[in-house]
Amino acid sequence: MNIKKITAALITAAMALSMTACAENGEPSTTTPSNSGGDIFDNNETSVSEPSKEVTMWDVIPEIPVTDASAFEYKYDSELGGMVITNYLRESPKVRIPDTIEGEPVVGLNLSNCEKELTEIVMPDTVKEFDFSSATKHAITFINIPKSVTEIGYGAFSDCTSLTSITIPDSVTEIGEYAFAGCSLTSVTIPDSVTEIGEYAFSVCRSLTSVTIPDSVTSIIGDGAFWACTSLTSATYKGKTYSYNNIDELYDAINYGDDMVQVIDGVLTDCSEKATEVVIPDSVTKIGAYAFQDCTSLTSVTIPDSVTLIGESAFDGCTSLTSITIPDSVTKIGSWAFWDCTSLTSITIPDSVTLIGESAFSGCTSLTSITIPDSVTKIGEFAFDGCTSLTSVNYKGKTYSYDNINDLYAAINGN
User: Fold this and answer.
1) Do 214 and 194 touch, CB atoms closer than 8 A?
2) Comparing C-alpha atoms, which of 339, 331, 346 is closest to residue 313?
3) CA–centroid distance for 103 within its chain
4) Cβ neighbours around 266 below 10 Å, total
5) What is the pLDDT along the chain (415 residues), one digit of tens a residue?
6) Burial of 12 (0-12, 13-18, 19+ CB in 10 A)
7) What are the beta bridge partners of residue 94?
8) Where in the chain is CATH 3.80.10.10?
9) CATH code for the domain defined by 75-255
10) Bridge partners of residue 213, in order along the sequence
11) Are 37 and 64 in contact, with CB atoms under 8 Å apart?
12) Domain 259-415 is classified in which CATH homologous superfamily?
C-alpha cells in the first residue's frame, strides 16, 4: 500500500481515538494536549513521515487529553524526587498521566492496588518507575515506555494478555526477569542500548513469532528468556537466525560467545579422575557453562584477570575445591556456578561483580563465610540454599547467616 495512504489512514484512526477518548474522559473533543507528556503524539508533526520508514500503529500514540490531577491519589517520594501516583479514581479506561502535579514532576506510578481495567495509558517522560495491577495488565491494549526508563523491571508487563505490540525506547539498558512473560506480543525489536535480558523475560509469549536482539546484548540472557514461545521462528542475533527449536544455541551465543572455556588442551577430558589443578590462559574472557562440572579431583583453579563471566554450572560438583580467587575483572557469577562445591569454606567476591545467579553457591555445605561487595545489586533465588554452615555473610556493613539469608536476598534485590 502507498505510504501516504497508510499515513492518512493512521491519522484518521488517531483522530477517531481522540474523539472517543475525549468523550470518555468527559472533556471537550477540541482540547489539544500540550507537550507536557514528553515526546508523544503531536497533530502538527504526525502527518510528516519519512518515505523510507514503515509506519505502524505504534508510531502513533493515542491522543488522550491529559487527565486532571483530581483523578488520582498521589504522594511525594523523596527518593525518586517527585510525585508517585498511587490510585486512579475515575471510570474512563483511557488515561494520560500529567507530567507535573502540584508543581512536582510525576516520577512514578504505583497502581498495583488499583483494580480498574485500564486499556490505554500514556506516560510522560518524567516517569521512572511503574507498576500495575493484574486487572490493568489483562486489559491494557496500549502503553508507552517513557524515555526516562532505563530498566524494565521484574514482571513489569507480565500477563498483559491484550498487549500485542510495544516499543522499547533506546534509554533502556536492561530487561528484567519475567518483564513480558505471558504477553500476546507478536514481534519485538530490542534497541541497541540493551545489554542484558533477564530470566523468563519473554516466556510464554505464545504469539511471538519474531524478535531482533542487538549485538549490544553480550553480558547475559537469562535462563528461559523465550521459554514456551512455541511460535517463535525468527530470533535474529549477530546475523544468525534461531528458532524455538534451537533456542539454547542462542543463549550460548549471547552468554559465552566463541571465547569461552570448555576444554583446555584436553586437560578436562575425564577430569573427574585426572585434573587436580587448572590454570586458565589469559586469552580466555568467559568461563562457559559446565566448563568444570563434576571435576571431583580439582583442588585449585587460577582464573586470569581477562575473565569477565563465570558461566552457569561452571564449577558445579567440584567437591574437592576448597578455595578460589575470583579476579576483579569478573562482573557476573552465573546460576549454579559453584553448586555442590562441598569443600569450599570461604570466598571473597570482588567489587566488580554486579550479579550472583540463582543457586550460585547452593549445597556448599562447608562454606562458613563470604563477603559480598556493595556492587552486587542482584542475587538469584536460593543462591545459598543448603549452605547450612554459613554463619557470616557480610554485605553493606551488615552480617547475615544461613538463618536469615532471605533478609540478605531482600537487601540486595531492593525488596
Assistant:
1) yes
2) 339
3) 32
4) 9
5) 433 333 334 334 444 434 443 334 444 333 333 333 333 333 333 333 444 434 333 346 788 999 999 999 999 999 999 999 999 999 999 999 999 999 999 999 999 999 999 999 999 999 999 999 999 999 999 999 999 999 999 999 999 999 999 999 999 999 999 999 999 999 888 999 998 898 899 999 999 999 999 988 876 788 789 999 999 999 999 889 999 998 888 887 787 564 444 444 333 434 544 567 777 878 788 887 787 888 888 888 888 898 888 988 889 999 999 888 899 999 999 899 999 999 998 888 999 999 999 999 999 999 999 999 999 998 988 999 999 999 999 999 999 999 999 999 999 987 6
6) exposed
7) 120
8) 75-255, 259-415
9) 3.80.10.10
10) 237
11) no
12) Ribonuclease Inhibitor (3.80.10.10)
Contact call for residues 88 and 115 (beta carbons, < 8 A): no
The set of cell numbers assigned to 198 is 533477564
**How many residues are listed for the chain in this entry?**
415
Q: Given the C-alpha cell 477540541, which residue does it identify?
A: 30
Would you state the cell numbers that stand for residue 241, as one nine-digit string?
Answer: 537466525
Determine the straight-line distance between the first and last CA of the chain, rounded to whole angstroms: 50
- Extract the C-alpha cell encoding 150: 532505563
| Distance of alpha carbon 63 from alpha carbon 219, whole angstroms | 38
CA distance 236 to 189: 10
From CA 46, how far away is CA 10, in angstroms rounded? 9
* pTM beyond 0.85, yes or no: no
